[in-house]
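Deliverable D5.2: sample structural annotation.
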Amino acid sequence: MPRPDAMRLRFGPELGGLAVLVLLLAIVELLVRSALLNPFLVPQPSAVLLAFGRIVAEENVLHRFLVTGSEAGTAAVLVACIGVPLGALLHRAHLLRAAIGSWIAAVAAAPIVLAYPLFLVMFGRSASTIIVISVLSGLPPVILMTTDSLQSVRPALIDVGKSLRMNAWSLFWKIMFPAALPGIFSGLRIGFIFALINVVGVEFLINFGGLGPLINELAERYDLPGTYAAIGFVVLVSIVVFLILEALEKWLRPGKR
């Protein structure tokens, strides 16, 4: 049976974060009720909580949640499966990295979502448009962080592998890749954030998909509690994606706590 102090150490940060969130919501509730915050801009948190049940019952939000979640999940998988190998390739191909590294950094700063009319012409008003734009937005940080992480592997670790007469393939998979995993997962987190933002943003712009159009519809009705509740479901999608990422990282790095 786990000891009480071990339980506190394990769940203390989560409980502390939950307590801070509840405190902030209580403060906002008091400010709105006292009219120190404009209730036409910020709804009462209690009204937002009550709106969750209403939009689940009336707006088919669970289906919308699954649509947005599937689009975000597909984009995340593609970002990881394309970005990490490309980052490893740039690490190995020095000439290629010098040729296109700055272009990848430029794409990371570019508002790709503004080019959505072009993607609509190419892919139509479909989930493909949403996923392609999201993948293109999420790739640059993953590629750059993967390359930098592999570049930053300590030379001593590489020398140990060479002393054991490992070939290039074994050296990469058994030494360099595990050593670079913390930086690679940092890049994946940033890339997934960009991808999720673009999933919801493009859904909103082209009025196709899941939670993005719902937020737009509720805002046009001036249903502030419902709008904030729909945004809460977007946050829930991101939490699910990051829990999966954290589980994958723990699986690849068994010693991580």
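Annotation notes: The radius of gyration is 22 Å. Residues 172 and 178 are 9 Å apart (CA to CA).
The annotation will be released with the project's public dataset once the embargo ends.
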